[in-house]
Amino acid sequence: MKALVYGGPGKRSWTEVPDPKIMEATDAVIRVDAVTICGTDLHILRGDVPAVEPGRVLGHEAVGTVVETGDAVRGLAAGDRVLASCISACGTCRFCREGSYGQCLGGGGWILGHTTDGVQAEYARIPFAGLSTHKLPAGVPDETAVLLADILPTSYEVGVRNGRVSPGDTVVVVGAGPIGLAAIRTAQLFSPAHIVAVDKAESRLTAAREFGADITLLPDRLAADAVRAVTGGLGADVVIEAVGLPETFELCTRLVRPGGHVANVGVHGAPATLHLEDLWIRNVTITTGLVDTSSTPRLLAMVAAGKLGVGDMVRHRFALADIMRAYDVFETPEQSGALKVVMTR
């Protein structure tokens, strides 16, 4: 089969690799029907995630059809249409028993496209398939469902829920890429008074307004003044970092009010300065996190019921064999206007 293979920093290829096989009794093999590219994949290609070794098949977000299951897999059968979660869960370790699947100690966590071969391929092996896949309702299209593999639960769990968004809050989302837009959409579930989007690209600020932001700002020195202007001079109740750069993290700490929350979602490849000399006295809470995907069933139910729309995030579509061109488009959002790109069989 063919797959998107990481060849080291800056190197990727769509090339022949061995077909996946059942390796453990808890595995399943799926035919990949729809797959997308994550900002984390770009971090890998920049060399920001050294645990990913050359030769690894990338990708951790897919919808597929079950081809084969291991002897220990229950509740799945060949022909089932499933969402493959970005997080794998053994189900028995301490963290899995607490629902913190991202911290799995039994061989799971974020492994697809990281420490084991991923899903940007014609077929993929899904470890711990019983807990790491979700059967899909017929009414949820593939290109909508694939957004539930990572960005929707990530923005909701690591951004909105960790940030403790509450009714009447002013929420600032720094970075209006796919994760930031998903944070804007899921923050609305809690009826904030204002959602402010900050980004340097006008195309993404336009998208942020379409997704529900009522204020959009450039990341300049006037941004803090604008946030204070709508909060009685205090600053934002919750600031969600959705980029992963030192300067965007530090901007978040300048926008938050005393007693507020900074929820870091972005993947950082370089150190950021933590100005505790300013923050310690302001009672600011800073959270980080890897998604657990424990919210996926609830989010999927809302999507299936028409209560949470995310399909409008997909602006570019490609055949799976055109994945190299899809990467080119996704890597240059300022020129292409890309949000999420989806490749289908």
Automatic annotation (TrEMBL):
| Alphabetized InterPro entries for the sequence | ADH-like_C, ADH-like_N, ADH_Zn_CS, ER, GroES-like_sf, NAD(P)-bd_dom_sf
**Sequence similarity:** Belongs to the zinc-containing alcohol dehydrogenase family.
- Domain Enoyl reductase (ER), which positions? 7-343
Which GO molecular function annotations are given, in alphabetical order?
oxidoreductase activity; zinc ion binding
Q: Which cofactor does it need?
A: Zn(2+)
Coiled-coil features, chain-numbered ranges: none
Gene3D superfamilies in UniProt: Medium-chain alcohol dehydrogenases, catalytic domain, NAD(P)-binding Rossmann-like Domain
Report the PROSITE patterns cross-referenced here. ADH_ZINC
Q: Does the keyword Metal-binding apply?
A: yes
Name of this protein: Alcohol dehydrogenase
Alphabetic keyword roster: Metal-binding, Oxidoreductase, Zinc
